[in-house]
């Protein structure tokens, strides 16, 4: 596998993409890449970005998204463009896209995406899927479920949702020549591929357990027989108005945690909005009858989780039967982690680099939701939609 | 009464016993249930208490997070201000001052949009010099709707305005509407000289809050921009002045070079002219001299005394004229390199002695005491002997001429690195200071009583200088009126 990575912080999108692209291209010499990834800060989401390099790529799939910030090795770039070119031998790859998700419904859109992936895939061995979706989709879990319907419920899927500059106004996906919203892109990988996955969040439960009495999809109507919002009102001693005002912070730092029997970590759900009737809209589904807790994260627990996830990733990768060197580590990290860690956000990257070695390129994006199998150690756990998490993929 | 134990009674007793036991168990169970219920209540209370503590913990955590967030924002903003200030002040190009402010700096300071305008006195309008976060069409609309009077007043008063410091709600609303934001800070840019203006920063994020600290930071930034504008303008002024000066120097140098070329051309023409004229003069002069000599020898018959006297005068003047012409010819030949110097090793004392032999009569006449001090290491020189003799003849001749009777002349030589230096010192009448610079020029004669009486060509020292220069040497003179003069020159040594 050959990996070429280029990054540019030039203000002009067309100049930035050109600089980043050629930096990456030089690194893979004359080989034709199998796939091109593009990640950029939201202000770079311009058609010029893709048009500029399209003539050089033509039939090579281009996939990417907007992000609050890009990280490359131990640095975080709030403004810029990153180009990743991957050239692999003996690896099968198919790329699928689904548009107009809201109109189609997330579940159906997910199924459509899965169908397209399988249609384009020319190998019997499927290893894992990578998913990028619009960060403002309300029903991310349903999209995932739809995809699982086609790929298999225990099939490992990793990915994340595009983000913007924490305004939650518009996030973008890049697909070949197009800039998309209300869409999702997935890549199905298989063949002679060494890979490992890991995931952690580090948020801990606090207070007593509560029962979700009434819920549908990502909407929680009642908790402990009371309007769901009352749980947050009681814990934060704030009325609806104050809660709405601080919702971004509360949602990022104190999500709901769903207890799942036999799983290592609680499944986290960010509160997206508060309805007038006191219902809560979450980023991801909350099953009716589930036991939930308010979760709390600290910098220490957050960084400890990163350490654990990286160690697990390393252990899994090097315990594979046909050992190989690690060529690339890709990461989806929640914007909540960025908010919590603030100026220490680069510390998270340092931890990963220290454990894996600084010579292994690390690239990643900040996301509004992540997808990863809950029990990533065995790959047998079902993939869930997460919040506040860091997902690592080693190739 | 007799107790009859029959099976019926036995059953009754057993049943009674069982009932008693059951009652005891029931009472016990009731007690335990009560105890368990109490424990459950206790446990529930503990859980509730822990939950309450959790709430306090969460609320405190959130407050701490908020405070930390604020603190972080301030630190990041200060860093950003520091970075902007450094970048802004690192340029001395007025156009680059504003373009060095990047959107990442602005975001770190908590804003996404920024505009800066400078007031154009002639056009009576604000000129846009910085735009972060606005599209061109938005800018057009903002520029059209800008309330000039308000911003000019702000600049005049030097006040910073923000959505927290402006008290009029309608004004805040109109500013927010104009710039399409929720919060803003506007600070005047006030350089000491030149165009003034204002810096606007804003955010359309409702969740953000503006504090006095934000206002202060933007004020510092605007001041920094003002100072840098001053520096840039001063630099530009200095730079322009320097450019002008350089241009003038260049022009003047060009003029001088042209003048020098002209002078050199004239000088060349002069030398050629002198050379030509001298040649032309020498032939008739030789004839005149020849005929005068024949007549004076009275080979053509005796001459009356008066005629003889006149002929002697002709002969003498012809000699002077021949000397003058020869001198001119020599100078022009040396100048044009037509005389090839024959450099050969000689002993300095030998040349001096030969010259002194020629001049012995004159020295004796004026009773001048001449001493020579030739150091051993300055003896061997590489010179054209005949030309060097002319140097000594001229310089010693001058020394004798301008030294009163019973005066002294000293010839001294010593070694330098690759040369020797010769000093010829007299106790003569000396040379005025203003003549020292021009004494070696052709036809220059120092204005003194002796020169007025004794005729001379004014070419002697000029010829000496050219001969010394042809030896790659230097000649100079030091003199004090009425005390004497020292002529010094250098000559190449035999190595």
Write out key terms for the chains shown.
heterodimer, A: 395 residues, alpha+beta, 2 domains, 8-stranded antiparallel sheet, 6-stranded mixed sheet, 11 helices, 26 strands, B: 495 residues, 5-stranded antiparallel sheet, 5-stranded mixed sheet, 13 helices, 12 strands, elongated
Structure report:
The complex is a heterodimer of chains A (395) and B (495). Helices cover 30% and strands 34% of the residues of chain A. With 395 residues, chain A is α+β, with helices and mostly antiparallel strands. Chain A has 2 domains: 2-199 and 302-394, no CATH class; 204-296, no CATH class. In chain A, strands 14, 15, 16, 17, 18, 19, 20 and 21 form an 8-stranded antiparallel sheet that branches. The mean pLDDT of chain A is 90. In chain B, strands 2-1-5-4-3 form a 5-stranded antiparallel sheet, with helices on both faces. In chain B, β4 and β5 form a beta hairpin. Classes of the chains: A alpha+beta (395), B alpha+beta (495). The A-B interface holds A 11, 43, 78-79, 165, 167, 206-208, 234-237, 245-246, 248-250, 253-254, 294, 296, 342-343 and B 47-48, 50-51, 54-55, 57-59, 61-62, 65-66, 68-69, 72, 75-76, 102-104, 107, 112, 205, 207.
Strand-helix topology:
The complex is a heterodimer of chains A (395) and B (495).
Chain A: E1 2-8, H1 13-27, E2 35-40, H2 47-57, E3 62-66, E4 70-72, E5 75-77, E6 81-87, E7 91-98, H3 101-104, H4 106-120, E8 128-133, H5 140-151, E9 157-161, E10 173-175, E11 178-180, E12 184-191, E13 196-200, E14 204-216, E15 219-223, E16 226-227, H6 229-236, H7 240-245, H8 247-253, E17 256-258, E18 267-269, E19 271-274, E20 280-282, E21 291-296, H9 299-318, E22 329-334, H10 335-341, H11 345-356, E23 362-367, E24 370-373, E25 383-386, E26 390-394
Parallel strand pairs in A: 2-3, 8-9, 22-23
Antiparallel strand pairs in A: 1-6, 2-6, 3-10, 4-5, 4-23, 7-12, 8-12, 9-24, 10-11, 13-26, 14-15, 14-21, 15-16, 15-20, 17-18, 17-21, 19-20, 22-26, 24-25
Chain B: H1 7-89, H2 94-99, H3 103-108, E1 113-120, E2 125-132, H4 136-145, H5 148-157, E3 161-162, H6 169-179, E4 183-189, E5 197-203, H7 212-296, H8 305-336, E6 344-347, H9 348-366, E7 369-374, E8 380-383, H10 385-402, E9 408-415, E10 419-426, H11 433-436, H12 449-453, H13 460-470, E11 475-480, E12 484-492
Parallel strand pairs in B: 7-9
Antiparallel strand pairs in B: 1-2, 1-5, 3-4, 4-5, 6-8, 9-10, 10-12, 11-12
